[in-house]
Amino acid sequence: MKKIVVGLGSFVAPSFWGSSKDLFRTRHLPAMAALAERMDFTLAAWSEDIVSEADAESACRYFEEQGADFILLQCTTFPGGNVILPFGHCRARLGLWGLPEPERGGAIPLNSFCGINLLSSILGQYMDAAQPMKWFYGDSDDPKFLRRFSVTVAALRGIKSMTGARIGLLGGIAPGFTDFAFDERKTKAKLGITVDRLPEFGDIKERALTYDDAVIAPLRKEFSATACCVSAAAEHDLDATARCYKAIEDIIKENRYDAVGIGCWPRYRASFGIVACAIIGRLLEEGYIAACEGDVDSAASLLMLRGISRQTPMLMDLSDIDFCDNTALLWHCGSAPACFANKDGMKLDAHYKPGRRAPAADSALVGCVNDMVFAPGDITVARFTWEYERALLLAGSIVEKADTGFDGSRGWMGGIRVAGQHVDADTLVNTIMVSRFQHHYPVAAGCWEDEVLECLAWLGVDPIAPVPYRNYLQKF
């Protein structure tokens, strides 16, 4: 996983008492070095005082050379206003850090908060700098400062996980799922992601059929070992499942894809008599990012969520609403990774396929899917819309209910918030429908609302706000 690089510098005016105490080098620089170890980022520190505009230009060059993703500039004392000018043109995102006064009464020691106020105003008013800037305040061991800074580190990890990434669209978008249309020019311009549309299903099929059994046999065992049990239908389809998994994994490695969108339906059924659900679940379990139905925008969102959370994400539909207890069912055919399963574990089973219930339909059992109920716990859902100007952010918890939902990978989400605001089921459904949101929901374990909101703010993407339920038609 890519580490972010944090540049750190100190503004000082020699006329202030605090400048003689060497606070930056003796106290805050060592503390930030320790924090870099703890939060797993690379610290690029400019240890000299930045007093003049020329000093600032030298520091800027250093941060650029170090590949800084974020530059945190401490006003160790009130600075001269011109020191911020070179930083207004930096590639890296900016933060201004004010310190509390060490004592009160007499001559002001630092005037640090006034300093970040001055520099922020110069950036926004005098320079009309378009890039956002985040302020910080407090000593380097202040819990409030540490929480605010940790949000930024995680948010920037999410951005860096997308910047320069390559997504392979394997076999195109699944037929009928045209709400997953995307514009790769916007994907590149807004997120820094390149999309490769070239791999075809035929490439996967050709590879899958050529592997020796000696290569596939260990993979069949690995699929079975992850499951608490394997149904007869899944056992029958394990060989073809393992072969297609191996083909996709090799294509990912050879093309150095950071994520893939897999056009999973209906070609795998037609050519191999299987579904791709368990394949996708295992790819996620093994650390790859994979989205079903050829959904590139969800693949990008999964990259962001993994960067933020440093955990394996998954991709769900929203398939049922319980208006009595304000819960929503996150469900998919069976593509969740096993790490989301509750204490009962994950079962390799046949696809739910509507034909199993529809009269006169093909009722043949087809594997393999990861059948499971999700473990209770906090979750965060986030996905970009196709133009990358907005994103849906949901947060809440997987809750236990007597009704566990439908066959496949599933869990009921309760305590739901939209963009940080608690909503009932009526408002949740109304928000999704009025905003015309696409029907996929990337999910990460844990509560990451602040981190996602900051990630979106740096990218200039607006979170979709709750749209309260009304009985009349509401404007899209």
Give me some keywords for this one.
six-stranded antiparallel beta barrel; single chain; 476 residues; alpha/beta; elongated
3D architecture notes:
This protein is α/β, with parallel strands linked by helices. The chain is built from 13 helices and 20 strands. Strands 11-12-17-16-15-19 form a 6-stranded antiparallel barrel. Strands 2-1-3-4-5 form a 5-stranded parallel beta sheet, sandwiched between helices. A hairpin with a 5-residue loop joins strand 15 (377-384) and strand 16. Helix 4 (143-162) runs antiparallel to helix 11 (296-309). The mean pLDDT is 94.
Strand order of the largest sheet: 11-12-17-16-15-19
What does the largest sheet look like?
6 strands, antiparallel, barrel
Give the overall form: elongated
| Regions with little confidence, pLDDT below 50 for 5+ residues | none
Structural class: alpha/beta
Describe the structure concisely for a colleague:
With 476 residues, the chain is an alpha/beta fold. The protein has 13 helices and 20 strands. The strands form 3 sheets. The chain has a 6-stranded antiparallel beta barrel with strand order 11-12-17-16-15-19. It has a 5-stranded parallel beta sheet with strand order 2-1-3-4-5, with helices on both faces.
